[in-house]
Amino acid sequence: MSIKNDYTLSPVTALAFYSFDGETLLLAGEGSFLKVFHSKSSDCLSQIELFQEQAIHGVCVNQSAVRDDEAQVIVWGGRSLVLLSRKDIIDILDQSFISNASRSIIIPDWIFDVAASSHEKSSCLLVTAHNDLFKAEATGRTVSYKHLPSPSESILYSAHVIWDTPSRILVAAGTVFGEIIVWDLTVTKLGHCDSARTLFTFSGHEGSIFGVSFSPLLALSDNKSTRLLASCSDDRTIRVWDLSENEEKAKDDTKILNPRETGFGSTDTITGAVVSNRCLATVMGHASRIWGVKFLGGMFPPPADCHIDIVSFGEDSTTQQWRLDLKESTPSANLTHVKTYAFHSGKHIWSAAAKTKDAYYHSLATGGADGKIVVYHLVMSDISRGSFKTRDDQLTTFKESSVRATQPRLGEWDLESILSCLPSSGPSVTDELNDPEEKLAKSPFVMSSGTIKEPSKKKPKKIAKDAFNRYAFTARDEFIATTNFGRVILIKIGSTLEISEIKFPHPNQADLRSYSIVQGFPEISMAFLAGANGKIYAFVSNRLVEIGQVNGKPADMFKIYDKEAERYELLVTTLSGNVATLFLNPSSSVKNDIPVKYINYTLPDDFVVTSSGICQKLLVLGSRKGSLAVYSNPCGPALHLEGHYSIEGDAITSILQLPDSTESQWKSYFLTTGRNGVYSIFALHFAYNDQKVVPTDVYPVHHGTPPFGPMIESAWFESSNLMLCGFKSKDFVVWNQTTQSEVMHAECGGAHRSYAYSALENAGGSGHFVYTKASKLYIYSQSCISHRVIKSGGHGREIKSCAISSDQRFFATGAEDTTIRIWQYINNGSQQSKEFSCLSVIQRHTAGIQHLQWYGSKYLLSSGGNEEFFIWAVEEIPGFGIGVACEAMCPDQSEDRDLRIMSFDVTQAPEILGGRGVSALLISLAYSDSTIRTYTYTRSSGFTLIGSGKYTSSCLTQIKHISVIENKLYILTGSTDGSLIVWKLLIVPQSQDEDEENSYHPSPPRLEMMSSSKTHQNTIKCSGISLSSDHMLLLVVTGGDDNALAFSIYSMENIAAKSKRYLLRSAHAAAITGLCTLSEPSTSRRSCSFRVITSGNDQRVKEWVFSVRQEPEEGYIVDIDKTGDMYTSVADVGDVAIFKDDAPAGEVKVLVVGNGMEAWDIQMAKASLADSTC
User: Fold this and answer.
1) Per the database entry, which stretches of residues form a coiled coil (predicted)?
2) For residue 930, how far is the Cα from the chain centroid?
3) Which letter, b or e, does each residue of 403-416 get, where b requires 16 or more Cβ atoms within 10 Å of its Cβ?
4) pLDDT, tens digit, for every residue of 1084-1114?
5) What's the first-to-final CA gap in the chain, in angstroms?
6) How confident is the model at residue 1002 (pLDDT cuts 50, 70, 90)?
7) What is the pLDDT of residues 51-79, one digit of tens each?
8) pTM of this structure
9) Using CA atoms, how far apart are residues 1076 and 1078, in angstroms rounded to an integer?
10) Which of 836, 682, 852 is nearest to 1156 (CA)?
11) Neighbours of 551 (CB within 10 A)
């Protein structure tokens, strides 16, 4: 074969923890490959393709097997089963394992679950899709199996089998029709099996059973033990069933074995009685189907005081933790939600593995359809999360120090409890309440002339109550809190809270009463405070110092870090004022006890400052309406950019200069965040005038939309990672945009509250989150990231299109999740170092993406549903990576926007359309209503319609530009009726009038159909074109819904003539959905050859060599050879493309995308990528 698999990023369908020589490894099934990762370092240690044409569906570990020849790891997928010994694992880690020599076997039916035996070291039990039970046993290098008795052959969707005891096998089978069959089988000491016995048949679910799981043994108060069963279903419910066997319940259980109705929602009254008798708890969970459930923990305490944790995994790509509260005195239990873990993209968590560290602490690994593997830690819900305590031990802490060190801590206090911890020393601000009516209201009675009067019927005046107001961090683990009565409280976060009060100088004691704003400078251990009278105070060395005053009531204060000067400055704005005051280097002035200098900047009209920053010594301000103002001189006008330049009219919340972002002495970059869920990066062009920096132009080069939001409040860099924080619904979220992973989240009630956040050093972005909720102070502290990414993933949905940049450095993918990702294939030589590295995620489409195409390496174009067509400008940004900004979008959308742009093509516009020497793009769009529109596009003038046409009622699926000959554009299209159509468009020169405002021709020419050739029986799904070396022949390859591969030859001398067609029927066993072509060196002007790589829904990657030669008498002679045919783990293949990787050898690769991505090697000599088309 001339093609071979090079790298796979596929859904992770199996996971298992494995202890090896004192280290914890994580075994993952990804497609047909078994990959081995180190659980702590996340390094990929090895990988091996265990099955040739079958994905791995499960991995079972038998740690009780200790000898080298005993089966320690059991892997299965479909009907295939492999038993791996410890020696096999060593060989896999040493890269010396030979899969053909492994102990493997084919079982007669689809395997659903496997149970290893602790007493028979090289055997295991298998439950299959028809409720059959098998026992597989390894002897030497061979594996045999035998069929064991089972009570019925029901059609299953799930199963769980365990060795309940060495002599008893317990099976739970979830059926297609919503029933759960629990049965057992007794095994004698000699290995003989009695007849299988049905114990229970549970009904109640209103959908197919997708997951069942036995609990570990539960100890009962009568020294007996029992188990529970958890199930999940298509109806989105989780149910817990009682499996205890007692005489009273057994009477009802026998009734369920009588003849009854089948299907969902049985109305039989007897069945309902049994359900209510056995079903302990039911809860609705997840936003869609639930694929699996697991119990956590080992031997539990008696059910009289028992809390059991269950985790569930769903189509909504979340893991949810549940707490089951059992009471032995009642026949029911409560199942309550504990926490949701959302660490995957797209849809589906397909696999999970749990490892118990102690009675309360578990490691959980999950693998999703996005190909991502994450590990996170769970704590049993009866052990509360870590909490803080004051010096008076008012709050409890974790029972285990190891848990306390890794789990978040949460504490809450009202103001009274905080103030009670303060030492009483002299009068406070509250002592100055001198309102006589307020004092009168404090007493229920009024004394007058020695007579007691009845309380007044008039409602007394409400007593003013102090409360928390604002927060600001003065160090990473220290913050100040102001109150409504003007108190300033300093709180230091540690294992306990250290609380003290900062006193104002006596004349200014009430300056912060009722109104205060604060700004923390934890980097220099300072904070600044201001009240309604405009006085500005600095908190430094545990004291408050007045540093200045502004004219008017302060509106807000902003921290500015001047990177070049390595100093911090303070910007203060006032309500209804048009001046912003910048205090210069206040920290140095305060410490040296000298007056703080300041500069006043005049703001543009209707400009409410919401953020500020420094870029190349230029002051950059962001406004509430999303506009920017850039200052070089406080006395001069600002370079004012309206909102549509930045984030479409929403408030800019932070401004940050990118590290190492100075591309040249004339250009730099800064980043902004906004409250519409978008962060942006701007390029700032500047010049020098009298040794002063002057801004000349500012424009966006990147817009990003992280999955949390819509309120992004701040941004910073942690090493080289871009960190964002903000609010999503009721949660505060810290997000690593570089790795596309969540760092922490805390449920706080939403964004409308006072809060402050401080990221800890070397904690991956984790830190202290301080906020007010229901008038109480909350502190949420997390010392490490919420989870660890073992392996990065991708879309998590079906990828419909891919495209390679012309310089071969990047490729883009677009999927049904409406996102576009830009990738780079990393190939450092070793198999373990290869990866698809995601450089950027683009979210602008609102419907599934249909087609992607690069123009050079600076433009990426995309189309999809809702008549969406975007042109993306791509730029490399120093200190950041790839910047992507939407430069233009389709101008001619209909009112209903109910069409899809199925395909498009982009080429360089001919000179007659370029106009004034400006480079222009020629773009043709194919719509689902068979309409074709052709435009020219330039950045300055936008789109210009130069032609349109319409086919029939068939949907157009493919469109390609053939060539421009004598001011005529020739276009090739494919459609759902299986026809290839050649079109001609007369090109009309563009107007050169500079004053022309209308960019559209009043009546653009119509496309003329030149020829139509019936090529396929129905839809043409993919196509590729190539020109012969002498450019006299146009070679077109198409793949269709009819499983056929067609080859059409057009003469460039008479392109309107009908093509010569060659059809290879049944080229694939299913629809061909992707192909690409690669030209080979030609030995003669009268002959040419090229390779075609095809793939489709049959999960095969095939390579074909097409050779064409022209004989004087016989005409065209075509030879077609199939030179490669391999299985791919990518299901639902959407597209195929050819690229050259970045390895020193520069090997040619094929990219196959669908439900996952794969890179394939092409073994060939001197292939021409320049002539390849896909």
Assistant:
1) none
2) 35
3) bbeebbbbbebebe
4) 666 788 899 999 999 999 999 998 887 777 7
5) 22
6) low
7) 988 999 999 998 776 676 778 899 999 99
8) 0.88
9) 7
10) 836
11) 10
pLDDT of residue 994: 47
Q: For residues 688 and 105, what is the distance between their CA atoms, to the nearest angstrom?
A: 75
Cross-strand partners of 371: none
Enumerate the β-bridge partners of residue 814: 801, 820
- The DSSP secondary-structure symbol of 710 reads S
pLDDT band at 347 (very low <50, low <70, confident <90, very high): very high
Q: pLDDT (tens digit, 9 = 90+) per residue, 883-893?
A: 999 999 988 88
Angle 466-528-426 (CA atoms, 0-180°, nearest 5)?
45
Non-local CB neighbours of 448 within 8 Å, separated by 6+ positions: none
Rounded distance between C-alpha atoms, residue 1122 and residue 1094, angstroms: 11
pLDDT band at 455 (very low <50, low <70, confident <90, very high): very low
Give the closest residue to 673 by CA, choosing from 747, 720, 726, 721: 726
Burial of 241 (0-12, 13-18, 19+ CB in 10 A): buried
Structure token digits, residue 1172: 């390849």
Question: Per-residue confidence at 910, pLDDT binned at 50, 70, 90?
Answer: confident
Residues pairing with 75 in the sheet? 59, 82
- Burial track 649-680 (b if 16+ CB lie within 10 A, e otherwise): ebbbbbbbbbeebbeeeebbbbbbbbbbbbbb
CB burial of 898-934 (b: ≥16 within 10 Å; e: otherwise) equals ebbbbbbbbbebeeebbbeeeebbbbbbbbbebbbbb
- Distance of alpha carbon 1003 from the chain centroid: 46
Q: Max alpha carbon distance in the chain (Å)?
A: 134
Compare 263 and 539 and report the one with higher pLDDT: 539
Reading the block at residue 1124, the tokens are: 């490669």
- Here the tokens at position 665 are 């002495």
DSSP state of 235: T
Q: What is the CA radius of gyration of the chain?
A: 35
Residue of 135, 105, 139, 144 whose CA lies nearest to 117: 135
How far is CA 1136 from each of CA 35, 690, 812, 891, 1074, rounded to the nearest angstrom? 25, 56, 12, 30, 5
Asked if 816 and 864 touch (Cβ cutoff 8 Å), the reply is: no
Q: Give every strand in the sheet of 535-540, ordered side by side.
A: 517-521, 526-530, 535-540, 543-549
Tokens at 1017, concatenated: 């029986």
Check: CB of residue 239 under 8 Å from CB of residue 205: yes
Cα 91 to Cα 109: distance, rounded to the nearest angstrom: 30
As beta bridge partners, residue 664 has: 667
Which of 232-241, 243-252, 620-629 is least confident?
243-252
Output the CA–CA distances (angstroms, integers) from residue 180 to 134, 569, 782, in the order listed: 20, 67, 42
Interhelix angle for 269-278 vs 247-255, to 10°?
Answer: 150
Q: How far apart are CA 1162 and CA 1147, in angstroms?
A: 8
Rounded CA separation 537/548 (Å): 7
Q: What secondary structure does DSSP assign to 869-906, as a single string?
A: EEEEEEEEETTTEEEEEEEEE-S---SS----EEEEEE
Instruction: Give the Cα separation of 278 and 243 in Å (integer).
Output: 8
Whether residue 480 contacts residue 499, with contact meaning beta carbons closer than 8 Å, is answered with: no
Cβ atoms of 228 and 218 closer than 8 Å: yes
Dist. CA 906–CA 1148, nearest whole Å: 24
Long-range CB pairs of 392-401, under 8 A, 24+ apart, other chains included: 392/421, 397/495, 399/360, 400/358, 400/360, 400/361
| Candidate from 672-676, 1018-1022, 1032-1036 with smallest mean pLDDT | 1032-1036
